[in-house]
Design a protein that fits this description.
Blueprint lengths: L1 H17 L5 H5 L2 H4 L3 E3 L13 H9 L3 E8 L5 E3 L6 H4 L10 H4 L14 H7 L5 E6 L5 H12 L5 E6 L2 H10 L5 E5 L12 H8 L4 H4 L3 E5 L6 H9 L3 E7 L2 H10 L2 E4 L9
Parallel strand pairs: 1-2, 1-9, 2-4, 4-5, 5-6, 6-7, 7-8, 8-9
Antiparallel strand pairs: 2-3
């Protein structure tokens, strides 16, 4: 009998830890994101149109897609749009972006094109008011400061936007300091990512979304390759939470995503029925 009671307590604790925010009124604010496919880092091909460049964002807007992008901050406080921690893959320079000033970044091009790392402000200026925008705050550098500056900037624009991060402390910061902002927890099976999984406990927590009791995110953005994860399945099917699929790279992925997710982030192909 004692074992049964302990098991019930442990199951209850687990469910409490992974439960997202279930405020259905906040779900309604995410409708524009459900009604539009979201172009991951813009509409790019990483040839003449690099990821996270102004040209790719403008192209996504022309095709009436929503946009997902990544925000980091330079040493001189400029918010820029860039995904990786270092410039090596995209710019061929082995430096951390957060160790560079904006002027230094302007010395480098994206994938040998004429495109440069764009200011977040310039990207916002290029969007339509009704373009659904998912802003990911990267964990590098002072990510809390980056988050605060991004919220301030976004609040000066009439834009349809929500915010997400892999770092639960960023999501918690939004919950405590900007509860009006729709916030999301990014997650995946970090334990299999040997390059980025420095802490096994953090790997388990992020894999099984065990930090939701601290953050109560309005949506869960989960890697579509890991959709069978128990915590994700419970959030999707039992809690009926809002779920965002990343990253969809085929029609097969898109069909699968529609079984478990409400929002769809894609790249590397043009979904059928769209320009």
């Amino acid at each position: 009998m004692t074992i049964v009671i302990i098991l019930i307590i442990l199951i209850g604790l687990y469910l409490f830890m992974i439960m997202p925010n279930l405020d259905r009124e906040r779900f309604k604010r995410m409708k524009p994101f459900e009604e539009n496919l979201i172009a991951h880092r813009g509409l790019f091909n990483n040839k003449d149109i690099p990821e996270n460049c102004l040209k790719g964002f403008k192209k996504a807007v022309e095709h009436d897609y929503g946009i997902e992008l990544d925000v980091q901050r330079t040493t001189d406080g400029k918010l820029v749009v860039f995904h990786d921690a270092t410039l090596k893959r995209i710019c061929g320079i082995d430096r951390k972006l957060t160790d560079c000033s904006y002027d230094e970044l302007m010395e480098y091009s994206l994938l040998d094109t004429e495109e440069k790392i764009p200011l977040f402000k310039d990207v916002l200026d290029a969007l339509k008011e009704d373009t659904p925008l998912i802003v990911e705050i990267k964990p590098e550098g002072d990510c809390i400061g980056t988050c605060e500056e991004a919220v301030k900037m976004l609040n000066t624009y009439k834009r349809t936007w929500i915010m997400e991060s892999f770092n639960p402390m960023v999501v918690r910061y939004l919950k405590k300091n900007h509860p009006e902002v729709i916030r999301g927890q990014l997650a995946y099976n970090l334990r299999k990512d040997k390059e980025n999984c420095k802490n096994p406990f953090a790997g388990i927590a992020l894999c099984y979304i065990l930090t939701n009791f601290l953050t109560r995110p309005d949506f869960t953005a989960y890697d579509i390759r890991n959709y069978k994860n128990l915590s994700f399945q419970l959030i999707s099917k039992v809690f009926k939470g809002e779920c965002v699929a990343w990253t969809i790279r085929s029609e097969e992925d898109l069909a699968l995503a529609k079984k478990y997710y409400q929002q769809y982030i894609f790249d590397s192909f043009v979904p059928k029925g769209h320009k």
